[in-house]
Amino acid sequence: MNVVSNMALFTSNREVLGLPVCDLDWAEALHFASTLADMPVGQTMIAFLNAHNANIMRIDANFRRALDRHVVLPDGIGVDFASLTTCGRMFPANLNGTDFVPALLTYMTTPKRVGLLGARSETLRKARDNFEAHAPWHEFIAVHDGFFSEEESPEIADLIEQHKLDILLVAMGTPKQEIWVARHIRPEHARLVMSVGALLDFVAGDVPRAPMVVRRMRMEWLYRVMQEPRRLSSRYFVGGPIFFWHVLSHSSNHWAKAALRAVAGTRAA
């Protein structure tokens, strides 16, 4: 049983390019996710939506279907722009996985068994050790690195089940991680499953975070481009404008339909 459809009833949502994204502030999101991890039955999958994977979602039907099985949290200034154009206000909080997951582990005082899946083997071990230093009341298990084939996936899923986890963090990059979770993860694997992208690289210290002042200015994306220009320049300087164009197009359609409904309602009255 996946409880995402039931638990989502307790949150409000805003649409980003047609996908419902949770409209929660930090306190609400931490309480919500912690409650999901404490549930005795069922399972909820959480993903994070930013401008980059929103672009992927538009053209990758498998990814879009996978996201339909997740509770989706807003990540970054791009989805704030999308919210502003359709709702007139930004999301209450930037709930990116790099900040949200460590904060959640600190917030949860009841000890949990937390499985880590993905990244390189050495990165995985360093991330586990740093998580243990960050929240020593939880038990962290380095389940497997992210370098395995689709044919090996049933074996990896069986390995996850053997660890009797409460929480599973999957770090294999978007959209691979969300699609893999939707295909292979079942309620017996963990109560809460989170697709976390490059989180383990950051926690391990393999990839540096931007200085706090840059993060508060919502400019960490630019810092990352400066660190990895060859890999990330296209994502932000080409993908960003494409995302904004589709948001504006989607917003125009949204407001046009709202206007037509208003006119129809006036005539009916």
Order of helices and strands: HEEHEHHEHHEHEHEHEHHHHH
Please state the structural category. Answer: alpha/beta
Q: Order of strands in the sheet with the most strands?
A: 4-3-8-7-5-6
**pLDDT averaged over residues:** 89
Inertia-based shape: globular
The CA-CA distance between the termini, in Å, is 45 Å
Number of helices: 14
Structural domain count = 1
Oligomer state of the chains in this structure: single chain
Q: Helical amount among residues, as a percent range?
A: 40-55%
Task: Give a short account of the largest sheet.
Answer: 6 strands, parallel
Describe this entry's structure for a reader.
The chain has 269 residues and is of the alpha/beta class. It has one domain. It has 14 helices and eight strands. It has helices spanning 4-7, 26-38, 51-59, 61-67, 77-87, 97-107, 121-134, 153-162, 176-184, 199-204, 212-216, 220-227, 229-237, 239-268, and strands at 13-16, 19-22, 44-49, 70-74, 113-118, 139-144, 167-171, 192-195. Helix 9 links the parallel strand 7 (167-171) and strand 8. Helix 2 (26-38) packs across helix 6 (97-107) and helix 12 runs antiparallel to helix 13 (229-237). It is globular and about 50 Å long. The mean pLDDT is 89.
